[in-house]
Write a structure and sequence with these properties.
The chain has two domains: about 60 residues, Orthogonal Bundle (434 Repressor (Amino-terminal Domain)), CATH 1.10.260.40; about 60 residues, no CATH class. By secondary structure, it is mainly α. The protein contains eight helices and no strands. The longest helix is centred in the C-terminal third of the chain and has 24 residues.
């Protein structure tokens, strides 16, 4: 059950194993083993990190309880946090207002461009 949830979440959000692994602090090989059910005793801190990364609850990943209720409560909290952040940052609010009108393909392109930009910034900072 956990393996299926992890695979579905990663594919739904269009992340690679490497991207998710970097965010939660495991190798892509370990994440692959989680998704294939090779490693079944996943440490609780990893499940919590994965849940936070995907915006779901740990119980959703574990396949416990009412998944829709879990999503709704987390979604409400996330919406509150996003609203608070946008109210305090006008430039970010302007960007957000543009992004909400883009389709999935356009968002994927923006994400790729942003990642390339950040990688270049990091490369330049390391060369200084």
């Amino acid at each position: 059950m956990i393996a299926k949830q992890l695979t579905e979440l990663r594919r739904k959000h269009r992340y690679t194993l490497e991207e998710v692994g970097k965010q939660i602090g495991v190798s892509k090989q370990t994440l692959y083993k989680y998704e294939k059910g090779i490693i079944t005793n996943i440490p609780s801190d990893r499940i919590e990190a994965l849940a936070a990364f995907y915006g779901v609850t740990p119980s959703y990943i574990m396949g416990w309880g009412d998944t829709e209720a879990n999503k709704k409560s987390l979604s409400t909290e996330a919406n509150r946090q996003v609203s608070e952040i946008l109210q305090n940052n006008k430039a970010l609010e302007n960007v957000f207002n543009i992004l909400v009108h883009l389709d999935d393909e356009q968002l994927a392109m923006i994400r790729s461009i942003t990642e390339a930009f950040l990688a270049e910034q990091e490369r330049q900072a390391n060369n200084e």
